[in-house]
């Protein structure tokens, strides 16, 4: 089972864990990306994400297919939050269940790296001094001039 989503709602790790759980599996590996409170000496108050949602979901489905080609896994869940994501809240989650940990760990690492490189999602950091900065994902092949850095 593959589950992908782009949502404005907070990410529920409990729900995703239940979604990928299987009696056939001895491992569930997870990457959870959260908003940190600082970047290069600036105090971050929140992140704001935008996405080209249809393409984002399509690219996430491709990631699931690529994971299945490389590792023996049971279930995959990939979720990215858009909109405002406050400090300490999750913006992205990737969970993979497999019979053994080595497959799920490798699949999760591949999944987050591939997501960063291919999924059209953009991030703006807002700072406590009132400034903000759009962050280009230098790993992403869809990088455009949609948002210029503004400080």
Automatic annotation (TrEMBL):
The keyword Membrane does not apply. SUPFAM superfamilies: Molybdopterin synthase subunit MoaE. Its EC number is 2.8.1.12. Pathway: Cofactor biosynthesis; molybdopterin biosynthesis. InterPro entries: MoaE_sf (IPR036563), MOCS2B_euk (IPR028888), Mopterin_biosynth_MoaE (IPR003448). Keywords: Cytoplasm, Molybdenum cofactor biosynthesis, Transferase. GO terms for cellular component: molybdopterin synthase complex. The keyword Cytoplasm applies. It is an enzyme of class 2 (transferase). GO terms for molecular function: molybdopterin synthase activity. It catalyses: 2 [molybdopterin-synthase sulfur-carrier protein]-C-terminal-Gly-aminoethanethioate + cyclic pyranopterin phosphate + H2O = molybdopterin + 2 [molybdopterin-synthase sulfur-carrier protein]-C-terminal Gly-Gly + 2 H(+). Substrate binds at residues 100-101, 116, 123-125. GO terms for biological process: Mo-molybdopterin cofactor biosynthetic process. It is found in: Cytoplasm. Catalytic subunit of the molybdopterin synthase complex, a complex that catalyzes the conversion of precursor Z into molybdopterin. Acts by mediating the incorporation of 2 sulfur atoms from thiocarboxylated MOCS2A into precursor Z to generate a dithiolene group. Belongs to the MoaE family. MOCS2B subfamily. Heterotetramer; composed of 2 small (MOCS2A) and 2 large (MOCS2B) subunits. This is Molybdopterin synthase catalytic subunit. It comes from Dreissena polymorpha (Zebra mussel).
């Amino acid at each position: 089972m593959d589950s992908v989503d782009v949502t404005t709602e907070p990410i529920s790790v409990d729900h995703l864990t239940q979604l990928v759980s299987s009696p056939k599996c001895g491992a569930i590996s997870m990457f959870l990306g959260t908003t940190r409170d600082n970047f290069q000496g600036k105090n971050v108050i929140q992140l704001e994400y935008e996405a080209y949602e249809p393409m984002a979901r399509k690219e996430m489905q491709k990631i699931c297919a690529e994971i299945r080609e490389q590792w023996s896994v049971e279930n995959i869940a990939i979720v990215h939050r858009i909109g405002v994501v406050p400090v300490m809240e999750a913006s992205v989650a990737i969970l993979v269940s497999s019979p053994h940990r080595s497959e799920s760990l490798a699949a999760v690492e591949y999944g987050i790296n591939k997501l960063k490189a291919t999924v059209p999602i953009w991030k703006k950091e807002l700072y406590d001094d009132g400034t903000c900065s759009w962050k280009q994902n230098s790993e992403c092949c869809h990088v455009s001039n949609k948002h210029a850095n503004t400080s």
